[in-house]
């Protein structure tokens, strides 16, 4: 059954529960490092708007605006150590997003794959599902809690665990292209792709582990442009924007 529409909007959402994947870079806005207050407030406002449809919302957030483990390991740091530092960066972003959402009047919970009882609940699948059923927005922090796994894989894992209807991957471009659209002017955008297409072509949608997990569990992915105001609502209403992987 479609979720009810918010007041003043006659559209309906085909989804009951979603998982929104935000990169840490999405919080940068116009600042070179860290979190842009206007940007995070704007994202929180859009999330609140789609919650009015009655949708249950889980969010996985990255930490690349603060620390990127893979990049630092390439400079000589131990990969596992660098990844743990990146997980801590996601927790900082999760707390910032929680604050922004609660200032909008949303009820939230941060659940961390690394235990830190003073600031977040430990991730327990059944507890997360119960929070969602009660209308709380659940922000999943610290990735999977394991090094060598990206937050894209964490998003696919959490979406599967909570039985989300769709995984929404927010990016800075309009979908998936056959080349970098910021560098190649005539890059072709794909409207739809199969999981196998993504893996065989090596397209930079999500890492191979995340794509394989979604494929095994038949979890559709929508890659869309977060920087266009209102796109989150368009996606949850089923508008054909971005690129569908299914």
Number of domains: 1
Give the CA-based shape: globular
Q: Roughly how many Å is the radius of gyration?
A: 17 Å
By DSSP (H or I, 4+ residues per run), the number of helices equals 8
Q: What is the rounded distance between the termini?
A: 21 Å
| Overall pLDDT | 93
Helix-strand pattern? EHEHHEEHEHEEEEHHEHE
Strand arrangement in the largest pleated sheet: 4-3-5-2-1-6-10-11-9
Number of extended strands: 11
Give the CATH architecture: 3-Layer(aba) Sandwich
What structural category characterises the helix and strand content? alpha/beta
- Tell me what portion of residues adopts beta-strand conformation: 15-25%
Low-pLDDT stretches are: none
CATH superfamily: Acetylglutamate kinase-like
Q: What is the CATH T-level topology?
A: Carbamate kinase
CATH class assignment: Alpha Beta
- Let me know the largest β-sheet: 9 strands, mixed
Fraction of residues in helix: 25-40%
Provide an overview of this structure.
This protein is an alpha/beta fold and 246 residues long. The protein has one domain: Carbamate kinase. The chain has eight helices and eleven strands. The strands form two sheets. The chain has a nine-stranded mixed β-sheet, sandwiched between helices. A two-stranded antiparallel ribbon has the order 7-8. The longest helix has 25 residues. The radius of gyration is 17 Å and the shape is globular. It starts with 16 loop residues before the first strand and ends with a strand. The mean pLDDT is 93.
Indicate the topology.
Elements: E1 17-22, H1 37-51, E2 56-61, H2 69-74, H3 79-103, E3 108-112, E4 121-122, H4 125-133, E5 137-141, H5 151-161, E6 166-171, E7 176-177, E8 189-190, E9 192-193, H6 195-201, H7 208-216, E10 221-225, H8 231-236, E11 243-245
Parallel strand pairs: 1-2, 1-6, 2-5, 3-4, 3-5, 6-10, 9-11
Antiparallel strand pairs: 7-8, 10-11
Helix pairs in contact: 1-3, 5-7, 6-7
């Amino acid at each position: 059954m479609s979720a009810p529409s918010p007041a003043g909007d006659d559209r309906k959402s085909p989804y009951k529960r979603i998982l929104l994947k935000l990169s840490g870079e999405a919080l940068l806005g116009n600042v070179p490092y860290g979190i842009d207050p206007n940007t995070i407030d704007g994202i929180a406002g859009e999330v609140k708007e789609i919650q009015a449809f009655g949708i249950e919302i889980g969010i996985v957030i990255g930490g690349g605006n603060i620390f990127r483990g893979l990049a630092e390991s390439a400079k000589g740091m131990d990969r596992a150590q660098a990844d743990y530092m990146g997980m801590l960066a996601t927790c900082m972003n999760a707390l910032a997003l929680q604050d922004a959402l609660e200032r909008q009047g949303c009820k939230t919970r941060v659940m961390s794959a690394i235990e830190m009882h003073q600031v977040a609940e430990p991730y327990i699948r059944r507890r997360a599902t119960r929070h969602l059923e009660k209308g709380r927005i659940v922000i999943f922090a610290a990735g999977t809690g394991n090094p060598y796994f990206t937050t894209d894989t964490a998003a696919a894992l959490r979406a599967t665990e909570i039985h989300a209807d769709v995984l929404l991957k927010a990016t800075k471009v309009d979908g998936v292209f056959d080349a970098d659209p910021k560098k190649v002017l005539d890059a072709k955008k794909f409207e739809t792709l199969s999981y196998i297409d993504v893996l065989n072509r090596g397209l930079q949608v999500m890492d191979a582990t995340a794509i394989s997990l979604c494929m095994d569990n038949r979890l559709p992915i929508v890659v869309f442009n977060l920087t266009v105001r209102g796109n989150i609502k368009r996606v949850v209403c089923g508008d054909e924007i971005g690129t569908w992987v299914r």
